[in-house]
Design goal:
mainly alpha, 82% helix
């Protein structure tokens, strides 16, 4: 495969693949499971302080 053929493929189908991957990954967070995982990740740093406050 020559450089020109590889460049043409990357400019056309590579761009389509990267755009579709981006849309899927961003859209993942708006689904019910993704929203829950995102919320859990965002509040993860507060878990230890909540349990220490409840115990102390």
């Amino acid at each position: 495969m020559s450089y020109d053929a590889l460049r043409h493929f990357a400019d056309s189908w590579g761009l389509v693949f990267m755009g579709a991957t981006y849309i899927v990954l961003v859209g993942w967070h708006f689904g019910p499971r993704g929203r829950r995982h995102s919320r859990d990740a965002a509040t993860m740093i507060f878990r230890d302080t909540e349990t220490e406050a409840d115990n102390g």
